[in-house]
Amino acid sequence: MRYDLVSLSLFVAVAETQNLTHAARRKHTAVSAVSKRIAELEQQVGTQLMLRLPRGIELTPAGHSLLYHARQIFRNLEQMEEELSDYAAGIRGHIRIFTISAALMHC
Predict the structure, then answer these.
(1) DSSP E strand stretches across 46-102
(2) By the 8 A CB rule, do 57 and 51 touch?
(3) What is the value of pTM for the model shown?
(4) What pLDDT was estimated at residue 90?
C-alpha cells in the first residue's frame, strides 16, 4: 500500500485535536477535504480509524495503531531532513586517509 503524507499529516492533526474542524483550521484546509482524506485512508486500510461523534472524534484501536506509526514516520522524516541538511552544509561527509603501514610504525 502507498500512503500519502498529506493524508497522514491530516490524520495526526485530527487525532491530536480530536475534532475535524480544529484539525482543518490547524492545517489551513477545508473541513470537507479533511473528512474526505480520512475517509480515503479508512477505505485504503479497510477499517474504520475513528468514530465520528457529535462533538468530535474518538480513535478506534486501528486508529491508535495508525497514529503511532504515522508519528514514527514523521519523526524519521525529520531525522532524515536534519542528516541530509548536514551533508548539504558540508558538516557531514567521509574522509578517507591512505597511508602505508611503515609510516604508521615510525614513531
Answers:
(1) 50-53, 56-59
(2) yes
(3) 0.79
(4) 72
